[in-house]
Amino acid sequence: MKITFIGATHEVTGSCYYLEAAGRKFLVDYGMEQGPNYYENKDIPVSPGELDFVLLTHAHMDHSGNLPALYAKGFQGPIYATDATCHLCDIMLRDSAHIQMFEAEWRNRKGRRQGKPEFIPAYTMEDALGVLRNFVPCPYHKVIRPAEGIEVRFADAGHLLGSASIEVKITEDGQKRTIVFSGDIGNLDQPLIKNPEYLHEADYVVMESTYGDRSHGERPDYPTLLADVIQRTFDRGGNLVIPSFAVGRTQEMLYFIRQIKAEGLVHGHDGFKVYVDSPLANEATMIFGEHRYDCFDEEALELIQKGINPISFPGLKTSVTSDDSKAINFDEDCKVIISASGMCDAGRIKHHLKHNLWNEKSTILFVGYQAVGTLGRSLLEGAGEVKLFGESVHVAAEICQMPGISGHADVNGLLTWAKAFEKKPKKVFVTHGEDSVTEVFAKRLSDELGYDAMAPFSGTVYDLAADAFVYETQGIRIQKKSASPKAARAARAFEKLVALGHRLMSVIRKNEGCPNKDLERFSRELQSLCDKWDRTDL
Q: Is the pLDDT of residue 269 over 90?
């Protein structure tokens, strides 16, 4: 009865856990690593063909994206997930396979000219279609038995359509243990989907910590904010371009725009058009509609009972083919364009940026996190010129960001979820967070809830029956090649600065409840420091 931590350890992506229990070998999640990789991840300790089954928390690529690669290496077992997760994976894994094959074709075409060996994609469309045939849809709350001695129940995690926390009850040699995998815990009061459910019993908890060191702050009035952006953009005669993640965030935007139109929050531009230019987003929107009765919250269901589709409205247009996409930019009317990818690093959004960034009448509105190094991050940080399709494009459009919108619970939401257990778990393993954040959140669980919490590194093995480590690893940092001494010193200096930033957050928390005049003085000093170092010449 052992768990081995494989991925999303001291990192945010690549979720994967390997378990041996009741004579079976299985995984919980098998996700892609996305963005920078800071630590070496251990391989699954058995060949994929030896795995009996997989449990999947939700459809996002950092939890599901490597399943076709697992199939390609011999895994033939069932994958248990909620109904909605199965449907979303059907489109998302096929889309991922298409990207893998396209990238391989491009790299090999370029590599052949340079005499490089052939690049093999992580998996093909055949692999994606093969693994999709092994998905087993499971209703929320129903107990399933993938093997004798193992019971599994999915509870709504409130993060994405179909997302789940997974409760696994194991009986082995007369001993019983319950281990809960939080999955990604959702933010409260998101459009369409329900709030996260709380679980009350666990011997062990594997818990995410994406926002384990920060609060989202007060929830803004999103329809009013979005209506204000649409109003001023259309009054200038421009277009509103929204780079958006195809699954989840696009549907939230449609929900807000339907409300804006229903309440007449934009004046003088009646019947304005909204284009969703993403085949994946359009398919995902259809799947959202199919799962309205098992996944939508009460507010969305009330609209449906009145005959109102909460994510559709007059003026909504979908774009499927590349010709449809190109035609959008020949439409001279003011319009909203929602397109992927959400960070502007690929996909159709780049064409819409090319047609709108130079125009001072238009607006680019970011509605999600923009990772360091992406085009979206560059635009948010004030880039005056960017490269698109090999050409320099001047940035004259208004660039803005909708604050606070997130599908993840913040630190307060995470603590509330953790408090729900009626008895203290024997141990809480903190994962799925940035390196220092996992440690910060584990300490808060210990200090504030009295939990025995720790953040394991990849390769750590824990015996659930004996309640003891079999093997506890230390993180092995990935060393970047050919770093100059000067660059290494700069990296160390920056790490020190980041560490001080975390200490500053700790100091801020300790000042909660201090007199207003002291807090005001503290704020002024921090503002002065930020103004001094918020440099544009870097």
A: yes
The domain that holds 266 is classified in CATH as 3.40.50.10890
Average pLDDT over residues 242-262: 96
CA-CA-CA-CA torsion sign (437, 439, 442, 444) = negative
Q: What is the pLDDT of residues 395-445, one digit of tens each?
A: 999 999 998 788 999 999 999 999 999 999 999 999 999 999 999 999 999
In the chain, what percentage of residues exceed pLDDT 90?
A: 75
Rounded to the nearest 10 degrees, what angle do helices 435-449 and 485-510 cross at? 20
User: Rounded distance, CA 230 to CA 242, Å?
Assistant: 11
Say if residues 502 and 241 touch (Cβ distance below 8 Å). Answer: no
Name the token pair of 376. 């979206």
| pLDDT of 25 above 70 | yes
Instruction: Please indicate, yes or no, if residue 479 is contained in any of the structural domains.
Output: no
Whether 404 and 216 have beta carbons less than 8 Å apart is answered as: yes
Q: Judge whether 477 lies within some domain.
A: no
Number of compact structural domains in the chain: 3
Write the DSSP symbol of residue 198: -
| Average pLDDT score over the chain | 91
**Domain range for residue 318?**
222-401
Judge if 510 and 430 occupy the same domain: no
Residue 475 in this model has a pLDDT that exceeds 60: yes
Joined together, the tokens standing for residue 410 give 């913040």
- The Cα–Cα gap between 496 and 113 comes to 44
Are the CB atoms for 322 and 227 separated by under 8 Å?
Answer: no
Amino acid at 32: M
Q: Domain boundary residue among 350, 372, 401?
A: 401
Distance CA 451, CA 443 (A): 9
Find out whether 130 and 69 touch, Cβ atoms under 8 Å.
Answer: no
Domain match, 463 and 514 both: no
- DSSP of 262-308, one letter per residue? HTT-S-S-TT-EEEEE-HHHHHHHHHHHHTHHHHB-HHHHHHHHTT-
**pLDDT of 491:** 58
Output DSSP code: residue 64: H
Specify whether the CB–CB gap between 378 and 386 falls below 8 A. yes
* 97 in Cβ contact with 68 (< 8 Å): yes
Q: What is the model's pLDDT at position 536?
A: 45
CB-CB contact of 116 with 132 (8 Å): no
Which of 401, 433, 458 terminates a domain? The answer is: 401
Angle at 226 between CA 222 and CA 231, to 5 degrees: 150
pLDDT band at 529 (very low <50, low <70, confident <90, very high): confident
Task: Tell me the sheet residues that pair with 31.
Answer: none
Tokens of 509: 């928390």
Per-residue model confidence (pLDDT) at position 416 = 98
Neighbours of 323 (CB within 10 A): 8
Regarding whether 37 and 174 lie in a shared domain, the answer is yes
* H/E stretch holding 137: strand 135-138
